[in-house]
Structure formats: C-alpha cells, structure tokens
Design a protein that fits this description.
Elements (H helix, E strand, L loop, with lengths): L4 H23 L7 H4 L6 H19 L1 H15 L10 H4 L2 H11 L8 H26 L15 H17 L4 H20 L5 H25 L2
Helix pairs in contact: 1-7, 3-4, 3-10, 6-8, 7-8, 7-10, 8-9, 8-10, 9-10
Length: 228
C-alpha cells in the first residue's frame, strides 16, 4: 500500500518539527548545566539488547510465513474465540507513561533532567516514534488481523506506550524502581490490548515495543551531540 498525500504530509511535518525542535538546541549548548554534566547519555550495547531483540523477533515472525501462521494467526484466533467485547482503553492508556513523566515532575519528584531538557528529550523521542511508525507502516503496508487495512506493522499504540515507559525509566527509575516497573507494565498492557481487540498481530506489538524503546534511547544518545 502506497502512502497517501495526507500520510506524506504527516511524515514531512514530523521531519520539519524535529528540525525545528533540535536546531535551536545547539545554540544553547554552552550552559554550565548541560546534559553531559548531569547524566551519562552514552548508548551502550546492553541498552540496545532488549529492544533490538523485540524488533528483530517481531520482524522475523511477521515476515516468515511459517512463523506468522503458527504464532500470529493462532494467537489471534485463540484470543478471538469467545467473540468477546472489545475494550479499547489502550487509546488513552498509551499516553499514561509519557504523561506520568510530566505529572511526577509537576508534583515535585526529582527527575534526572530539568523541565527544559525533559521537554526537549520528550519531544524528540516522540517525533522519532512518529517518523519510524509512519515510515514503516506505509512503506511495508502489512494487512491488519482484520481485512482491508494495511497499516499493521509496527503497532503505533505500542510504540507510543513504550517510548514513554523508557523515558519514565530513564528519568525516575534509578531512584524509584517501582515507577519504571509500573510504566513498563502499563505499556505491556497496551500491547496486549491491541491483540485482544484484534487491532494488531503479536509480531506488530513486539516490533512496536522495540522501536518505542529505541526511539527514546536514540534521542537520549543524541542529546550531548546536539549540545542543549
């Protein structure tokens, strides 16, 4: 399925917004409280193992016919056996982790970054998520579990939830592990609901989780080079 004009415009808008957010950051890079002074932003191999495995696993299942038949389809059929009512709470739940980053800061909980840096990191991570999601969805054109819609891979809701959960972990997880665990639990619930509601294959959800984490990791890694 080819991208429509609206999809192309959305992607281009994301690119322009990303440039708008990131370009001014370099000009503010000489502050004494720069990111590199207060937080280790190095991207280590250990940080990339879990999201890379999630993305690789999802892609492998999605595009290997035998695995798709034995995992995606069988799990979809099992989840839909009872003809259950759909509870599409994930439409709001996907925003809980990233909203929690802001709300906890507003309530006075100490985070790794100040307000300005946090907003920049969150905006950049969100824009990477949008660009990766739109780019893959409309380039690959995979059909969803229900027929006629070809925007299945990866799950955008899951990406949004996991990018927020990873940012929540990075900002508060070291001092408050329970917060990081809760954020990832909510994000996992979003992915499970996407399957339960027959909106995505399991492989879409796995890939979305990996890409969401990688989007945040990429932004945090780039921050010192942008010097904001």
């Amino acid at each position: 399925m080819q991208m429509t004009k609206s999809h192309i415009h959305t992607t281009l808008l994301g690119v322009l917004l990303l440039a708008t957010v990131l370009r001014p950051l370099a000009a503010a890079g000489q502050r004494s409280d720069s990111l590199t002074c207060r937080y280790d932003h190095r991207l280590t191999w250990g940080q990339t193992v879990a999201p890379t495995l999630l993305l690789a696993g999802g892609a492998t299942v999605a595009f290997t016919p035998s695995l798709h038949d034995n995992i995606d389809i069988k799990l979809r059929d099992w989840l839909q056996l009872d003809g259950h009512k759909r509870y599409e709470a994930e439409n709001l739940l996907q925003y809980v982790p990233i909203s929690s980053v802001v709300l906890l800061k507003a309530c006075g909980l100490e985070s790794r970054h100040n307000w300005r840096d946090m907003v920049c990191l969150g905006a950049g991570s969100a824009l990477f998520t949008v660009l990766f999601s739109n780019g893959l969805k409309y380039t690959i054109g995979r059909e969803r579990p229900y027929p006629g819609v070809f925007t299945s891979f990866p799950s955008g809701h899951t990406m949004t939830a996991f990018f927020g959960a990873e940012m929540l972990r990075r900002e508060y997880g070291e001092e408050y592990p329970a917060i990081a665990i809760t954020g990832y639990a909510v994000a996992t619930g979003v992915g499970l609901l996407r399957m339960y509601n027959n909106r995505h294959w399991a492989s879409d959800v796995l890939a979305g989780a990996g890409l969401g984490i990688l989007s945040t990791s990429l932004m945090y890694w780039l921050a010192p080079y942008l010097q904001f």
